[in-house]
Every structure is written in C-alpha cells, then in structure tokens.
Amino acid sequence: MLSQLIAHYGYFALFVGTLVEGETVLILAGFSAHRGWLDFPLVVAVAAAGGSLGDILAYTLGRWQGERLLARFPSLAARRGQVDTLLARFSAPIIVGIRFMYGLRVAGPVLLGVARLPAATFVGWNLAGALVWACVFGTLGYLFGEAALLLLGRIAHLEGLLFALLAVLALPLLVWLRRRAHRAAAQGTR
C-alpha cells in the first residue's frame, strides 16, 4: 500500500517539496528509489526541476520586490552583505554553492535578484546547481536506503512504519533548524 502511494504521488510530492528547501523530501525520494518505488534518474530530474523553479521564482521576487522584502524582513536584509561578498569574491559560480550553504538556500536567490545579477546568468548557474544538489541529496537518500537495508536485515514487515517514522522525525528537525536560523538572523540585526 505504501509503495503504491509513493509510486503514484511521489514525483508530485517531490516536485512540490523541492520548490523550497527540499533536502528532506529529496532524501526520502532517494530512499524510495532504492526500494524500487521511484526511478532514481527521474527523482534527480524532478528534484532539479523543482529546486530550480523555486529558486527562479525567489530570484524573480528579489528583482521585482527586493527593497520591500528587505525592509519587511530584517533577517533577509542581514544576509545581504554575505551574499554580496560571496558574489564579489566568486562571481556567478557561487550560485551553485549557495544552495548548499545553511541559511542561504532560500535567501540567496532572493538576494541575487536584489543584486540585479543578470537573469540569464542566474538561470544557467542555477540549473547547474540544482542538478548537482539533486544528485548529491538524492544519492544520500539512496545510500541511506542501502545502509538501512543492511542494518535492518529481514524486518521488511516494518518498512512502511520505518518510512513513516523517518518522515515524522524529519519534521521537528526542520522546524528546529528554521527556528535556529531565524534566531541567528534576529541576533545579527540587533
């Protein structure tokens, strides 16, 4: 039953989940690919598309409403100097790395839009970064699936419960990480 649900809705959930901060969803999809419920190359393609589209939307929002966003969200404004410094030091290739930097995964594309980085430059490097990101986190999920099977051995009757438990445990971790980022950003604006 669980495998049928994942096979039927998994790619859609992956796409939606990767629009904004989708590492956990992508790792779960990689695990699902290992179990044979999803196709790994398609997991990478869908995650790269979702992650890339989410960043393009954030970049566009930054170009269109950047100054208003900075005025409304001090935590975003606090990261502006960090992104400007990275952009000045590494130029456009930093777009690939920003999605791996804690605290800049969502803020980075917005701030690159505020910085008026040319759209074609952003889109090209963003697509490359999304593909690398999807490969890395999808592979981590796939390898986690391999390790889990080796550790769990012959308790296949519990795999649905374990998959659900993993998904439930990931949610508090995401909430904690988000709160921690907000607290750090709030302390940086004082």
UniProtKB/TrEMBL annotation:
Residues annotated as domain VTT: 22-142
GO cellular-component term (any): plasma membrane
Keywords of this entry: Membrane, Transmembrane, Transmembrane helix
Pfam families: VTT_dom
Transmembrane segments annotated in the record for this chain: 12-34, 40-62, 122-144, 156-177
InterPro entries per UniProt: DedA_domain, VTT_dom
Keyword ATP-binding recorded: no
Protein name listed in UniProt: DedA family protein
